[in-house]
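User: Hey, my collaborator sent me this sequence without any context and asked if I could get a structure. I don't really work with proteins. Can you help?
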Amino acid sequence: MNALFEFEFGLVFWQFIILVTAFVILGKYAWKPILGFIEKQEKAYAKASKEAKDQQRLAVTLSKQNQQLLQMAEKEKKAILQQALAEKKTLLRQAELEATQVKEDMLQQAQKDMLQEKQEMIKVLKQQIGILTIQVAEKLLQRELDQKNKQDVLLQTLINQASQSPKALCRVK
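Assistant: No problem. I've predicted the 3D structure and written it out in structure-token form, which is a compact way to encode the shape of the chain:
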């Protein structure tokens, strides 16, 4: 047989001793740190997994809270808009009433002003009519006086002539 495949007890013994020594050395210096590292990694993975699940639950909770907040905000927005519309309508009504009141006040004031101007114009017209009447009366009186003066002058002339010649008086009659 081949020398490679022959069984020798000494060789097997030393190989066994080397194997046990290797296992002891590896167990003391390599496997414990490796197993400790693996356990540490498993704990870290477990912790990370737990934290991820917690974060996921927290994210779901926050998402639900956000949805609720959004719904509440939407309700508040609608309420604020409705309130603003109501206030707008109220303000418009008040503005309309105030504008109507101002318009009526302005119309009344304009009517008062127009009435006052009308009365002033009537007063001025009466004064002018009075002045014109006085002027017309003055002219009429002046004419009458002129005519009377003319008649007086004529009569005086006639009297003068009559005193000078009685025949002239007969002619005038």
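In plain terms: Residues 9-164 form the longest helix (156 residues). You can pass these tokens on to your collaborator as they are.
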